[in-house]
Write a structure and sequence with these properties.
This protein is α+β, with helices and mostly antiparallel strands. It folds into 2 domains: about 110 residues, 2-Layer Sandwich (Phosphorylase Kinase, domain 1), CATH 3.30.200.20; about 240 residues, Aminoglycoside phosphotransferase (APH), C-terminal lobe (Aminoglycoside 3'-phosphotransferase, Chain: A, domain 2, Alpha-Beta Complex), CATH 3.90.1200.10. The chain contains 12 helices and 10 strands. α3 runs parallel beside α8, α4 packs parallel to α10 and α10 runs antiparallel to α11. The longest helix has 21 residues. The structure holds 2-acetamido-2-deoxy-1-O-phosphono-alpha-D-glucopyranose (GN1) and magnesium ion.
């Protein structure tokens, strides 16, 4: 691994490389250098089975980080290197290194930063503002970004993929998940509302992060948001993506893969705080149709994630990293429970948003 790091433009001698984080897709490492106690760089092996166009991927990320850097500079923000990721090019001035088999990238480590798997309402408010401002900063980017995973958050496509998985039934798991397939089917048409509004020309796509899990945000010790990380999926999408995926992780009182479904609920305090922050961060551009449908977004993401985990379980676990054979099934059950909880609270969510006017 040290040899890989040496392919990049770095100044110091490397002393150690250790695993970092809990992402389900890429492999991430922190890189230590001589004379410094804290890590200096983050090395990532890009999962190119999933991100097949690494060139496009790194190009998107560079456009986004440069645009944000420019905005922060214009606004005289201090400490910019802690507020946007900085990627380091290879010795050949490439955005990534290909070792003949795997793709790697290197970025500067942001020290004294913290990630969380859960947040309290106060942090949730800050996170809402930060993701809103992230979208807002990107709302006037004048370059087009490609879709690093085509139709990534298109629920119609996700349902089709689930259907295909069921037809193949590659590892004979369909019979044990009938209940979930039926429940998903009952709501399928309603849940595809976003795609319909888009086709009718009522709902725009904007540049979104598309993986706004709580742990994709760095905080400083005081609880201020430093920056948004994990930019692989930054691409055009409905704003529902960022709103919904944050709540899917943050408002869940249990874990994403909780075996005890009684631990799971949809926490309205987190919802309220996040929504308040998000609406402040997005006030310069958010349309009424987007705002009105935020409760739909809060249901959509647990629903879509159920569909994705279930399809992967049926396919024999080819996409998400798993720790044990039934992991994707447990994730499916836990996401479904979360969906049901969010579904029950939809009108309460609507009332809250109306009360903010
Ligand atoms: C993946 O890489 P990670 O863990 O941040 C996935 C998300 C899912 C999430 C579920 C590219 O994100 O879409 O919501 O797992 N990323 C990709 O935890 O598929
Ligand atoms: Mg991540």
């Amino acid at each position: 691994m040290k040899d890989i790091v040496l392919k990049f433009k770095i100044e110091n001698a490397i002393t150690d490389v250790k695993p970092l984080g809990e992402g389900l897709i890429n492999d991430t490492f922190k890189v230590y250098v001589e004379g410094e106690e804290k890590p200096k760089y983050v090395l990532q092996r890009i999962n190119n089975a999933i991100f097949q166009d690494v060139e496009l991927l790194q190009d998107n990320i560079e456009k986004v980080t440069e645009h944000i850097r420019k905005k922060l500079t214009e606004n005289n923000v201090d400490d910019i290197d802690r507020k946007v990721l900085r990627f380091i090019r290879t010795n050949d001035d490439e955005k990534f290194y290909f070792d003949g088999e795997k793709y790697w990238r290197l970025m500067a480590f942001i020290s004294d930063s913290y990630t969380y798997q859960t947040v309290n309402p106060e942090y949730s408010y800050t996170a809402g503002k930060a993701f809103g401002e992230f979208q807002s900063m990107l709302s006037d980017i004048d370059v087009t970004l490609g879709e690093t995973i085509p139709s990534f958050h298109n629920l119609e496509l996700r349902l089709k993929q689930l259907e295909e998985a069921v037809e193949k039934d590659a590892v004979g798991r369909v019979k044990e998940v009938k209940y979930y397939l039926d429940e998903i089917e009952k709501r399928a048409e309603d849940m595809c509302l976003g795609e319909r509004l888009y086709r009718e020309g009522k709902l725009p796509k904007r540049i979104c992060h598309c993986d706004t899990k709580v742990n994709n945000m760095l905080f400083d010790k005081e609880g201020n948001v430093l920056c948004v990380i994990d930019l692989d999926t930054v691409m055009p999408s409905f704003i529902f993506s960022d709103f919904g995926d944050f709540l899917r992780s943050a408002a869940n009182t249990g874990a994403e893969d909780d075996k005890n479904l009684d631990n799971i609920d949809f926490n309205m305090e987190i919802f309220k705080a996040f929504t308040k922050g998000y609406l402040e961060g997005t006030k310069s551009f958010l349309l009424p149709i987007e705002k009105e449908n935020l409760p739909y977004a809060a249901k959509l993401f647990p629903y879509m994630q159920t569909v994705r985990f279930l399809a992967d379980y049926i396919n024999g676990d080819t996409y998400y990293k798993i720790q044990y054979p039934e992991h994707n099934l447990d994730r499916t059950k836990a996401q479904w429970r979360l969906f049901e909880c969010a579904e029950k609270k939809e009108s309460e969510m609507r009332d809250f948003i109306l009360s903010l006017r």
